[in-house]
């Protein structure tokens, strides 16, 4: 069965469109980032994000239609992120997808954002079930036992901050700007000194906790009247080293408790080069998406939508009861 699916992703601050075929090949993909828009605020401003999605979504759709008209005309269904995320941002994508499906009389497929992230690891390589899925991003930190692309068991999650959120907060107190992950990762790669022994919460448990570590870093910084650039780099590198050790130990514990043959690490923080190196110490093969598929992107949405389409799942026809009732939801529940 051949098919072309359009994916729409607008759950937070990236506006993204992609077209994926029935062989799960990404034949067109473009993402518009809002990082510059939100940098001066030190984080994403929901109202600004949703407004920017409106203009960028129309621009990308126009670009697809003008530059790739044959793809645009051949689309069989639209897959769109419906949860979780910022409600205003999600609504822009969902309403655009419903409008496209209605106007072109094609199917609509709702996609869960976290499930799409887990599928991102399969865009370029095949994974055997079950595998452990580790989702690390600005809004989520959890470990799943993945039985299929629509059947997950959450076995661990953060009790408070997400990993990416903690990076941004530490970067803010160190005056490194937003987003914090890339700059802290770069400092960690270049650092060669000794590390500050920051606490690693919940060492013997699967669940994560980042708030205590974050608070320890903030207190360390505030306890110094003046913090020179070398010491700031030591703090940043020590923070990342603590996070990486925590991630490795949690995943190792999960593997011992739930034997699997592979681990997929996905989400925005999976682009962290230090994390990629650290996870190579695992006893089973570890898979990461390409960098362009780590952060929020429509390729993973279209890819999972294609899997649903080919398996006859979650397909909504224009005018059906499910189609008319479909709405966006901020809930992270699977």
Indicate the CATH topology of the largest domain.
Nucleotidyltransferase, domain 5
Number of helices in the DSSP assignment: 12
What fraction of residues sit in β-strands? Answer: 15-25%
Give the fraction of residues assigned to helices: 40-55%
Q: If you compute it from the alpha carbons, what radius of gyration comes out, rounded to the nearest whole angstrom?
A: 20 Å
Biggest β-sheet description: 5 strands, mixed
The CATH homologous superfamily of the largest domain corresponds to ATPase, nucleotide binding domain
Structural class: alpha/beta
Structure in a nutshell:
The chain is of the alpha/beta class. It has helices at 35-39, 46-67, 69-73, 87-104, 113-120, 163-173, 180-190, 211-222, 229-257, 273-278, 298-310, 321-325; strands at 4-9, 14-21, 26-33, 77-83, 107-112, 131-136, 141-148, 151-157, 263-266, 286-287.
Topology of this protein?
Layout: E1 4-9, E2 14-21, E3 26-33, H1 35-39, H2 46-67, H3 69-73, E4 77-83, H4 87-104, E5 107-112, H5 113-120, E6 131-136, E7 141-148, E8 151-157, H6 163-173, H7 180-190, H8 211-222, H9 229-257, E9 263-266, H10 273-278, E10 286-287, H11 298-310, H12 321-325
Parallel strand pairs: 1-4, 4-5, 6-9, 9-10
Antiparallel strand pairs: 1-2, 2-3, 6-7, 7-8
Helix pairs in contact: 2-4, 5-11, 6-7, 6-8, 6-9, 7-9, 8-9
């Amino acid at each position: 069965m051949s098919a072309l699916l359009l994916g729409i992703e607008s759950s937070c601050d990236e506006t993204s469109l992609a077209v994926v075929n029935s062989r799960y090949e990404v034949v067109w993909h473009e993402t518009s980032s809002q990082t510059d828009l939100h940098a001066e605020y030190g984080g994403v401003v929901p109202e600004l994000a949703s407004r920017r999605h409106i203009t960028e979504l129309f621009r990308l759709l126009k670009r697809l239609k003008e530059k790739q008209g044959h793809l645009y005309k051949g689309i069989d269904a639209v897959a769109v992120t419906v949860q979780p995320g910022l409600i205003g941002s999600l609504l822009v994508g969902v309403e655009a997808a419903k409008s496209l499906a209605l106007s072109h009389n094609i199917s609509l497929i709702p996609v869960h954002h976290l499930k799409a992230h887990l599928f991102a690891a399969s865009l370029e390589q095949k994974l055997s079930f079950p595998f452990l899925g580790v989702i690390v991003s600005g809004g989520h930190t959890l470990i799943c036992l993945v039985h299929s692309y629509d059947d997950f068991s959450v076995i661990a999650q953060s009790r408070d901050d997400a990993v990416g959120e903690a990076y941004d907060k530490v970067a803010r107190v160190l005056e490194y700007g937003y987003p914090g992950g890339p700059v802290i990762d770069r400092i960690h790669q270049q650092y060669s000194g000794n590390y500050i022994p920051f606490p690693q919460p919940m060492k013997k448990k699967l669940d994560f906790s980042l708030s205590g570590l974050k608070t320890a870093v903030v207190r360390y910084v505030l306890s110094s009247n003046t913090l020179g650039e070398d010491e700031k780099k030591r703090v940043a590198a020590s923070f990342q080293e603590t996070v990486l050790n925590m991630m490795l130990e949690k995943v190792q514990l999960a593997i011992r408790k739930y034997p699997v043959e592979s681990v997929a690490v996905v989400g925005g923080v999976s682009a962290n080069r230090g994390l990629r190196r650290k996870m190579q110490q695992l006893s089973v093969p570890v898979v990461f998406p390409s960098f362009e598929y780590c952060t929020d992107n429509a390729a993973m949405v279209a890819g999972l939508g294609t899997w649903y389409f080919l398996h006859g799942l979650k397909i909504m026809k224009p005018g059906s009861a499910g189609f008319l009732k479909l709405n966006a939801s901020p809930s992270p529940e699977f």
